[in-house]
Write a structure and sequence with these properties.
single chain, alpha+beta, Alpha-Beta Plaits, two-stranded antiparallel ribbon, 5 helices, globular
Amino acid sequence: QEHGLPAETFWRFVADCEVGEYPNVRRLFLPMQCMHCANPPCVPVCPTGASRQRSDGIVFVDYGQCVGCGYCALACPYRARHLIHEVQWYFPGGPTPSEAATSQPERHGVMTKCTFCLNRVDAGLADGLKPGEDAAATPMCSVACIANAIHFGDLDDLESPVARLIKDRGAVQLLPECGTDPSVYYLTE
């Protein structure tokens, strides 16, 4: 895993849904994660200011300031926040070599969430790369998706590949009635 998350902690999970009515039923797999909302309800409720939004729209948690109170998790309509209570290894008897190498103790007892791999985005931008077009500057979920179903890019650049994809193929945001204006879109077909 890119972020060394402990067992039972997932920043992205896939909801398995059935849509339609018999005999026209189909299965829909809906990946869920932090939506990096334009109006994130998780940010203003944080009593320590650990939940923040960058100028590029990425919402993140400052682990050094988070006290793990969970207010942000309660405010998030997408259930995208996770508290790592204690380290849980995948196998009894301690960590595997991979787990030991990627474990991040600073995340224990604090809220965690998808970061859109801001470390990759920032490193790529510093090297003059374009997120969503250059793999080294793009979130790992998008780079690693074997179905090419996850796209990333600059929504403000109307000529960017991701903005054109949303416009040309039609896309929806989840829970628009919440007024959060999520940055994650779902292509309908």
